[in-house]
From TrEMBL:
Keyword Oxidoreductase on entry: yes
EC number of this enzyme: 1.3.3.11
A single BP term in Gene Ontology: pyrroloquinoline quinone biosynthetic process
Function in brief: Ring cyclization and eight-electron oxidation of 3a-(2-amino-2-carboxyethyl)-4,5-dioxo-4,5,6,7,8,9-hexahydroquinoline-7,9-dicarboxylic-acid to PQQ.
Annotated metabolic or biological route of this protein: Cofactor biosynthesis; pyrroloquinoline quinone biosynthesis
Domain Thiaminase-2/PQQC: 21-230
Protein name: Pyrroloquinoline-quinone synthase
Family affiliation: Belongs to the PqqC family.
Gene designation per UniProt: pqqC
Catalysed reactions listed for this entry: 6-(2-amino-2-carboxyethyl)-7,8-dioxo-1,2,3,4,7,8-hexahydroquinoline-2,4-dicarboxylate + 3 O2 = pyrroloquinoline quinone + 2 H2O2 + 2 H2O + H(+)
Keyword annotations from UniProtKB, A to Z: Oxidoreductase, PQQ biosynthesis
Pfam families, per the entry: TENA_THI-4
Claim: Zinc-finger is one of the keywords in the record: no
Length: 251
């Protein structure tokens, strides 16, 4: 595989071969493997660095409903729209029901960040903004099949969430279960979402070319997640914070 695609020599003559390739992509390219996550979960970051991660990740979290609305707009099939719609509700919430964005703001507030500043997204890294917007554009411009396939990183999310919850609660005295509620809720939401998306691509990717497009869509999404952590590492571990970006008060 290359940084862009599965390359040559991978056989995709069946849905089962495609699924095996998807799982290989996750096992080798999911952002749980990134050095920044190793530092985060292992208690090796200071509070300011954790703040920077939560601040930047907010932009991704808050954009997910926009991305999912884009996906819904690609489908004439009512059943697919109904199924996909709950993803927006999961993040935006509903009247009287807290959503994922509110839970993420509970995290940033618990870490000592001003909510208005977080919601403004004025302090996020340029690479964060570029990567997240590229994801939205991908779901707008590529085929509906690829748009759904790009969400398949959720296949690998529960293990990451479990590692994050246990690691951060163990190592950081400024973290408590209440502000980690986003991740505990995703332990049940992500498998449901991933199950639908996997069944969809296995049913609708009927040719080797379509199965290759599905696999390459997942590679694209792993790149979207990975590059955000590259930027965080460069800025807040290596110390190369770009002009105008968030500067932690604690060191």
């Amino acid at each position: 595989m290359t940084a862009l695609s599965i390359g040559k020599g991978i056989t995709l003559d069946s849905a089962e071969e495609m699924e095996a390739t998807l799982r290989t992509i996750g096992a080798t390219r999911y952002h749980s493997l990134h050095p920044f996550h190793r530092l985060l979960h292992g208690g090796k970051l200071n509070k300011g660095q954790v703040q920077a991660w939560a601040l930047n990740r907010y932009y991704y979290q808050s954009t997910i409903p926009l991305k999912d609305a884009m996906v819904i707009s690609r489908f004439r099939d009512r059943n697919t729209r109904i199924e996909w719609r709950h993803r927006i509700e999961d993040h935006d919430g509903d009247l009287g029901n807290e959503g994922g964005i509110e839970r993420w703001l509970k995290l940033t507030e618990g870490l000592g960040l001003d909510t208005a500043y977080v919601e403004s997204t004025e302090g996020i890294l340029p690479a964060t903004r570029f990567a997240v917007e590229a994801y939205v554009h991908f779901c707008r411009d590529r085929t509906p099949l690829e748009a759904i396939a790009s969400s398949l990183t959720e296949l690998f999310a529960p293990n990451l969430h479990e590692e994050r919850i246990s690691g951060m609660l163990k190592h950081y005295d400024f973290v408590n279960p209440d502000i980690m509620s986003y991740f505990s809720r995703r332990l049940t939401q992500a498998p449901r979402d991933a199950g639908f998306a996997l069944d969809y691509v296995k049913q609708h990717a009927r040719t080797p070319a379509e199965r290759e497009a599905v696999c390459n869509a997942l590679i694209f999404k792993t790149n979207v997640l990975w590059v955000q952590l590259d930027a965080l590492y460069h800025a807040y571990v290596d110390g190369q914070i770009p002009p105008g970006a968030f500067v932690p008060k604690t060191s």
